[in-house]
Amino acid sequence: MGYRILVAAAVGVHFAFLAYGVFGGFLAWRWPRTIWLHAACALWLLTIVVFDGLCPLTWLEDRGREALGEPPRVGGFLDNHIAGVFYPHGHEVAARLVVALIVLTSWVGLGVRLARRRTALPTVDVPAGRDESECRSR
Asked: What is the pTM of this model?
């Protein structure tokens, strides 16, 4: 029972991590400081995909399956849980381009929102002979 929970948890965390890696940039529109966490997550996903690396969550899922007497799955999380469900098998390149477009769109949108926020800040007219901090304290 414990290993089944481990496998399910690994798969669940994998889905959550992947969802944040793809769509987390849009959360930064609301909470701009989270863009650094999203950038790290997106960089990790890019590294795993480009270098065909083994994600620790996939490793954990495979060890849990072995402990249950099941063979580990061939391929990674994307091959076993995403391909064929979110995009057709054999269309990995197109899916990766769509994901890259989503991430870049979220980052460009954040940049636009931050630029608008900076230009929308009220300016303080400082009368001659006065310090700006005196005007703000009123």
From this structure: 0.78
